[in-house]
Amino acid sequence: MTRFSGKTIVLAGAVAACALIYVVAGANRPAVAEDAFTPAQKEAIGPVIRDYLIKNPEVIVEALTEYQKNQADVEAKQFTERISKHKAFLADGAAPFAGNPKGDVTVVEFFDYNCGYCKKAVEDVVKLVEQDKNVKVVFHEMPILSPASQDAARWALAAHKQGKYFEYHVALMKGSAARSVQSLESAAKDIGLDVEKMKKDADSKEVRDMVEQSVSVARDLGIRGTPAFIIGDMLAPGYMGLDAMKEAVAKARKGSQ
After folding, report:
1. What share of the chain is helix, strand, coil (3-state, %, to 5)?
2. For residue 245, is it left (φ>0), alpha (ψ between -120 and 50) or beta?
3. Which fold does the domain 91-255 belong to in CATH?
4. Is residue 63 within 8 Å of 132, Cβ to Cβ?
5. Running along the chain, 257 residues long, what does each successive block of 10 average in pLDDT?
6. CA separation, residue 11 to residues 3, 88, 200, 251 (Å)
7. Contact of 95 with 107, CB cutoff 8 Å
């Protein structure tokens, strides 16, 4: 069932109302400005519009549907233009990744270590990499929920410098509580990372700049929350689920052939 917000319904009503004013004014005459109506005419038109919309509510839905379609087309075009600008960064060979480094389809994920749906999505990402040997998943930090998210993102990139990013990434995602520095250290020790080196790397300007750039690119792409996936040239905001992820990969693979 289609659901519309109050704001969009009002907008659609306004669109429908404008259309009706045009009809009342005479469809065969040139469009007229609002000032062309006298106060008396405006007062007379108001009840007509209200009565028409009450009797024909489908006009609002039709106007809203058309508006949303146009907006979706505009946003898709804007995203295509923006992703072209950031394509080199998104697929940067220096960025952490899992799967086949030469995979024919690249999945890019923006995430936050304290995001519940990101924690759920990590299981799907692990299964996708295990089941599809020709996919590459690139990870870009988007720590927007809390200062603890910033810490976790920097520590994960520090783990990347020791060649164990994905292992550390999965370990952090499996925890249910917000990540403290103590828990970050504990997770690092569990998988055999050099904790003292991680502390220095996590606090380095290089790592801080990497996090900042990832967030900046995400914002420019129109990503406002986590998780968000880019598969091929398609943006999928929010949790997808494994089946939807596989379908998107198959579509991207078919489109590249």
Report:
1. 65, 10, 30
2. alpha
3. Glutaredoxin (3.40.30)
4. no
5. 46 49 45 65 80 83 78 63 82 89 95 94 97 96 94 97 96 79 92 96 96 94 93 90 96 83
6. 14, 39, 53, 35
7. no
Say what the pLDDT of residue 60 is.
81
52: how many CB neighbours lie within 10 A of its CB? 17
**What pTM does this model have?**
0.71
List phi, psi (to 5°) of 134: -125, 30
Residue type at 41? Q
- Rounded to whole angstroms, how far apart are CA atoms 216 and 213? 5
Domain with CATH 3.40.30.10 in the chain: 91-255
DSSP state of 30: P
Residue whose C-alpha is closest to residue 230's, from 124, 91, 113, 33: 91
Q: How far is Cα 90 from Cα 109, in angstroms, rounded to an integer?
A: 9
Measured over the CA atoms of residue 52, residue 58, residue 64 and residue 66, the dihedral's sign is negative
How high is the pLDDT of residue 78?
65
